[in-house]
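quick one before i forget lol
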Amino acid sequence: MKKTIFSLCLLAITAPLLLTNCATILGKSAYPLSINANPSGADLSVTDKKGKEIYKGTCPATVSFKSGAGFFSRAEYQVRISAKGYSEQIIPVNFKVNGWYFGNILLGGFLGMLIVDPATGAMWKLETQPINVTLAKQNTVAMNPTLEVIDIHSISAEKKAQLVRIK
């Protein structure tokens, strides 16, 4: 009985030390990112690195981005902002290695360094700052089609060579 209680106490004390994972404890595996656009109400679409749309809405918005995209793989996203009459903008969302990930070396948490932090995505940290975009107006040229009747004898020989006979 005393041996079982001692074993459980020893396990309760050593388990946290063996499973230390600095980035998971002190960091995050998902980050909110504020996205604003001028004009307000612009369409917003976010796709991951596989091209799958993970968010669709309008600006302004706050979108939560997962930092990991698999074991030892950081996530990558593209934010597409568009509005009618304005040029579309595509902004990449990037992640970098979280400094707390290397805290596993100092605290002896190799399990955290090799399994927990890479699996949870906590080894990655959001690099992109809040997105504030002003969309540029598109140059729209209003075409006013007109019909002009010209006598065939009043055009040059070069222009006559470009004519196509309609049957």
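fyi Residues 17-23 have pLDDT under 50 and may be disordered.
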